[in-house]
Structures
1.
Amino acid sequence: MDAAAGALAVKAYDDGSKVVGFFQKKNDFVKDLEENYHKLKSELGKLQARRDDIEAEFNRDKRMQATRECQDWILRVKEMEKHVSKLEEKYNSKGKPSWKPTSWTSRSKLSERMAKKSEEVHSLWMDGIFERGIVVTKSVKPVEKMGAPKIEDKQSLQGAFQNTLNYLKRDKITRIGIWGALGIGKTAIMENLNDNEEMAKMFDKIIWVTVSKHPSTEKLQEAIIRRLELSVEGTSSTTEEKAQRISKELEGKKCLILLDEVCQKIDLHEVMGFRSLQKDSKVVLASRSRGICYDMDADELIKVENLSYDDAWNMFQETVGDALSSPSIKRIAELVANECGGLPLLIDRVARTFKKNGKNEVLWDLGLRRLQRWDSIKVEGIQEVLEFLKLCYHDLDEIKKGCFLYSALYPEECEICVDYLMECWRAEGFMDYRYEIKDARGEGHEILKELTDLSLLERTNRIKFVKMNKVLRKMALKLSSQRNDFKLLVKPREGLNDFPKREEWEQATRISLMDNQLQTLPDTLDCCNLLTLLLQRNMFLMTIPESFFASMQSLRVLDLHATAIESLPSSLSNSIHLRGLYLNSCNHLRKFQFNIEALVKLEALDIRGTQISLLEIGSLRQVRCLQMSLSNFGMENPIEGEISNFNSLEELSIEVCSSKLWWDKIVDSVKKEVAAWEKLTSLRFCFPEVDCLELFVSTSPVWKKNSCMTFQFANGHPDSTCPQILESFCYQSNYSLKLVDVNGVNPRMLKQLMVTYAFGLINHRGVSRLSDFGVQNMNRIFVCLIEGCNEMETIINGEGITQGVLKCLEHLCINNIPNLKSIWQGPVYAGSLALLKNLTLSRCPELKKIFSNGMIKQLPQLQHLRVEECGQIEEIIMESENKGLEANALPSLKTLVLLNLPELTSIIWIDDSLEWPSLQRIKVSTCDKLKRLPFNNANATKLRFIEGQESWWGKLIWKDETVKQRLQSLCIFN
């Protein structure tokens, strides 16, 4: 028992000693708390100093970077700093080190952790001694491949890609802007530039940056720093220092900077630290807005067009695959592809959706019908694209949104006259109608430019017209359906014989039923909120019910042109807010049955081609824009003096397409009345004699004080068969002069010529060359048409000329000049024809040479050349006139059309001597002696189409069969 008690005593003593030791150790930690804290801070300071020294060493040389071992050590130091910081926070949370704790245990634990952490920090400091060094040569990939999609089989994308490559090879071009609609394929082009092997050889570095919708300098810098794998540890985080760091990194290197999805201007100096690009470096930016490309000082702009039908169909087939082996499904699939409007993004999404239908024809047909109505129902695959396309719309202000939605009233891909559209916009109130019409048109062009710059509307081949892509139009219709103030009933070109049902139109604010077969209208249309009613070109519509307009007090725009109506009903008097009334080409319209004086706000009236007399509209003194025909003056008893009632007119157009004698009877009085108007800003008028024109110019107060007055003057007696080429161009045709069937050069005409932009010389006599009018008088001419001038032998005689001639001319059309020998005779002074883009030569049987000696060197901008029915042309570019011609001649030529040239043997005397860097299309027809084409395997790299007869192609002679094989795939035989 004593032994047991002794054992227990010994155990108790041991346990007690352990306890005492434990508490003694804890007490020591408590006493050493402040010492451990300062020791930890000291060890951390040593560690940070070594880290800073190491970073300074590898940052000193931009060609070097930290070793992987060193980078890992720096990351460990970062983690250690975090741990120490937390301990320091705990230490300081209770006050200064002198604090008296309420918890002895917590002080002990904190002190112990600090002591252990000091050892760890010291150990990490020891690890910072790198026997193998801390830096290695930096290795950054010249390019990071993105796996670009294939675009070789998509003409619009491949063409834009090739254009960009060609521009990048030109020394003077440093910034290129690629623009086009959302989903059009800009990113695919940029990715192909990034991955292109030729680009990798041209540049030391290719830097890709996707710009967010709301970019900041910091975000852009971070993206570039990541791409260049720069370390910014230990340096200032200011944008200025980061910019300088990026600039130094790129110094002396050839860089290609690709900026995708640019939504606003980016200051490259602020981001990258240089005001101008480094030598041999270039920037390519992709944006949905042409304006942003301008803001970014792009040297060249490239618009990405919608895919052609063939390219769109090929892309659709490639995605869908085997299901199209069924002929019945293929027929439906072609209609599906066409609904996508040539937008690659939409084609891809729709094709993937329809691929799920397999070979089930019922599902394909159902899907097509839904797709055709996706503006009113949800369709799988469309919603994502719709939200994407909406981005452009939502960036617009409310006025521009209204103008965009209004444009959806017209059929898809329909050409809309710009002047007419702007009149409708103004009538609707999208532009301030208190301003003069000319100012409103200027405002309208600003709106139109933004819409076209964003590809929400597109310019057509006829520059005075625009159109809306079918996909964007459906988007506009869907968006309008979601707005209470923009309810549309839109059914143009649907073959309607009957007016739509009440539930379709009763809530509408705008109705478009143009281009149908309507024969009758409802007795009344209870639409008190209706603002626009478009019924034009319903050719079988003969009568309008008497009460039809009874409730349309708010109506602003009414278009009935090209209908068969004979009168307008009395109820139209209720439309007291009507501002635009279009009745042109209503050939049977003789009278108004309504009180026209009630239309107190009517501003724009078009009665061309009607039988309405001026007497009918004489009380409309507030009208500002009047378009009329000679017939409106009265067929049997011409009315003189009635036009004087319209002295508030700002724009007047009188079409003369009838009897010369009839117009001669009244022209003097009309001219005198018009000349007295003081508000006139635009006039389209025919002056039979030069004296008549001169008298108007000398007496018109507006003309004297306002040199900006737009005019379309004809001198002589043009009729409806006169060419309309002068009117197919944009603003410049608003300053046009057309001389028809006139003799010689009247000195009094030359002053008018000096302010003319569009000049037409038709059936003129007594001149042998255009330069007889004085080259100094033609410095502003933008477009020139010469037709039927039998005595003309050359266009310009360069003898004695000491200045550039026709320096602003962009379009030259020469037609039916039987004695024309040459375009240019004598020396060609530098700067002459420097802006010429389009040259058309037709029916000139004596013409033998097109490009006289030295002329071709002055045509760097020529894009389109058409030569037709010129029986003596043997060579397009003659050896005798073009010796020493450089290989890069005609660098901008895109299309070459050669028709019915029986003696043509060659395009150029040395078949493949030119590079043809921009040529995309060549068309040849009835040129049986042309046996060679001027192409090899290296030139004309952008050529995409060769049109001609298959029999002609089969007779061509080739130096190299591989050239024929290359070009064969481009052929379109007719």
2.
Amino acid sequence: MATSDYFKRTSLFWMVAVSVAFGYFSFIVFAPEKIPFDHLGSFGSFCRYLVDNHADLMYKGWWAAIAIHLFEAVYALKVCSNKGISSPTARSLWFFQTFLFGFASLGLLLKYNPKRPKKH
């Protein structure tokens, strides 16, 4: 694959882990009545405590997580530029993947080391 259109999909593990965690976090913030806390043991008790006593903090934390992922996605565009990835399609894929999966995606982009022509 040419340097200008490099893209690597993050692993299925991270896709599932981040999606489930963020989905659960979203339910805790926006629809806690739909979560069966009683069936989740001590984790459910802890989550119920957070919902009952720190709902405002959870709401702010949810927005902070969105903001962090957005920042990572914008940073991914800068890294794409620095590494010579100029294809609009590849840059869009990096942006959206990094927004959805955060550092699990950004880490792949940061590890990418394009072969640059040697200067004599």
3.
Amino acid sequence: MNGTKMKGEGDDAKDKKEEDVVHLRRTIGLLPAVSFIIGTVVGSGIFIAPKGVLMNSGSVGLSLVVWGLCGILSLFGALCYAELGTSFTKSGGHYTYLLETLGPLPAFLRLWVEFLFVRPAVASYVSLAFGRYVVEPFFTPCAAPTVLIKLVSILGVTFVVVVNCWSVTMASRTQVALTFIKMFALVLIIIPGAIALAKGKTENFQNGFEIDALTLDRLPLAFYNGLYAYGGWFYLNFVTEEVINPNRNIPLAIIFSMVTVTVFYVLVNVAYYTMMTPDELLLSDAVAVTFANRALQGLASVIPILVAVSCLGALNGGFFGAPRMLFVGAREGHWPALFSMIHIRRHTPLPAVLLLYPLVVIMVAKGEIFQLINFASFARWFFIALATLGMLIHRYRFPLHPRPFKVPLAIAVTFTVVCFFIVGLSLYSDPWNTGCSCALTLTGVPVYFLTIHRFCVPPRCKRIFNYCSKKLQILLEVAQQEVQTY
């Protein structure tokens, strides 16, 4: 809808200096891209999820296999998205790929469900983890005040929003710094475990593949926990238009990041099992903190802070990437045009970033988000499966379409089948939450047909909305892009 307008304005923009033209800059090189993926993937999951993986896999050896397989599966998905990101040069991630391959309705539903509950729920969960790890060390062994945890969580969200509204460069540099800190935290866990293992401390690995406690209906839950810890590998695709030389840097960043994360995750779990028995790990609510008390007694107080920084990095990555989906959706006419605008001096998608802020704050203040996390998992995997299915259909329909990076067909088919299997299994194992997620997703269908497919909004409401949008545009100092960036 706005593409024609941008092209027309592009002629006028030629006479302006480069720094004065209003558009999103390509400022993300290879290192920020790698940091963006690693920093978003490595959140609170690796410090908490090992308990869920072990509980549902039934043995130490099998849990390590699950961690490795989850990493491989995530790498397969990331490779599929590398092909999508180099085939379709727009930002927007899932939304863009669904729009280009399966049409506007699935794309709008992805946009609708993302900002209705998925993104606020995920951001709230991570921010509350940040607040908990910052506050609880000051109150140990007593329980920390819930109000204080929520207040610190909101402060963390506010910091991330300010950074992402202020400057793309500042947000990417913040992500690089936070990524190095969280990788230091993982190294701090791996080294004591490696030293103990070298000294022959292997008793917890004896009979590591006992399967007496394994039941097939619980094994998929082990994969859910593992895949949660690997979540976030698709965020770089949200900012394709801001990546320098995307045909080279997107595949390189994805492959290097996911291989690195997989190796580190397996080594961290080996370190956990070296220093802790399976029973001790299952009794722990915060595995990394328990490990630190056992293996890093002099640095035990540092680990919660490092975990908090890790959560902050994941939060920053989410707020950096997700608003670009809304930005592109508005640019395509699937969301109010105000959200396709960027700040005239900061060159950040200010309205799209700010929309998320009150939704997350409200959800943090309410605190009851864990049910929504279950809803979010189904919606996320369902639309990822649709996106990779769309990629396969697009390959068949348009074999001559340029694809600078092409993932092997076997990998694409395997990942798509596994995704649909995960979705189908959730229908069987948790029909209530899955049914609610489906219902919430389908509420977008009438919205699409009433406001986009056939515009049925009363003229008076349209005039009021346009008036408010104009005033907000002036207040926020935002404007449409003056050049096409894809």
